[in-house]
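Lab notebook, design round three. We kept the backbone fixed and only want residue identities now. Task for the bench partner: fill in a sequence for the structure below.
Input structure tokens:
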């Protein structure tokens, strides 16, 4: 039987938990997160999403036509997301013209290297990246304003359906992939989980008020 996204979640529960449950998100829920921590996340995540957009474009280019609808809708959502990040940064008087922190750089490097991998691997990693935020932002439950807006962006029902479609498409690709490619996809899933955890920790570590 071929590998599926559901099996990956079952096989690595601890790793996935660490990717999606973090004090950063818990403190957004309670409102205890410090502005320096939140703003670090916001700016670094904008820089991440710029490179994630390029990953999405390469995924579309590698995909079968049956997968275009979901991926084109995803690119449309990313366009809105980039503009929304710029608005949020402006509200907070943050400059987005900033260097990537090493953790963000490592994650972006990983996404760039995915270009060399077969479609099934790219599709699995892309699903995992979106699902990490879909779960991470909704697991804590209702967040204190202004963080509720951020939780809703990735936790809303429409986004949840989109992520389910991404899982189906990754499963489709994995089903026809050779064993070695399925193993690469499993490895990519583990790397995404690890990098998600590190990304939260990077923002959480920010010093200052
Ligand atoms: C670090 N992972 C990170 N940032 C994001 N915006 C997403 C996933 C979801 O797009």
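Proposed sequence:
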């Amino acid at each position: 039987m071929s590998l599926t996204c559901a099996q990956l979640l079952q096989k690595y529960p601890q790793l996935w938990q660490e990717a999606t449950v973090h004090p950063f998100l818990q403190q957004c829920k309670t409102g205890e997160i410090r502005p320096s921590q939140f703003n670090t996340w916001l700016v670094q995540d904008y820089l991440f999403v710029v490179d994630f957009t390029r990953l999405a474009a390469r995924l579309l280019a590698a995909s079968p036509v049956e997968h275009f609808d979901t991926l084109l809708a995803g690119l449309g959502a990313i366009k809105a997301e980039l503009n929304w990040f710029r608005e949020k940064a402006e509200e907070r008087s943050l400059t987005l013209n900033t260097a990537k922190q090493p953790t963000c750089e490592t994650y972006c490097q990983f996404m760039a290297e995915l270009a060399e991998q077969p479609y099934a691997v790219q599709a699995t990693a892309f699903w995992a990246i979106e699902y990490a935020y879909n779960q991470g932002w909704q697991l804590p439950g209702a967040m204190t304003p202004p963080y509720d807006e951020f939780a809703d962006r990735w936790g809303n029902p429409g986004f949840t359906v989109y992520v389910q479609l991404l899982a189906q498409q990754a499963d489709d690709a994995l089903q026809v992939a050779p064993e070695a490619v399925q193993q690469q996809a499993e490895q990519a899933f583990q790397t995404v989980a690890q990098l998600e955890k590190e990304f939260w920790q990077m923002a959480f570590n920010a010093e200052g008020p």
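Keep this in mind before ordering anything: The domain at 12-203 is CATH 1.20.910.10 (Heme Oxygenase; Chain A).
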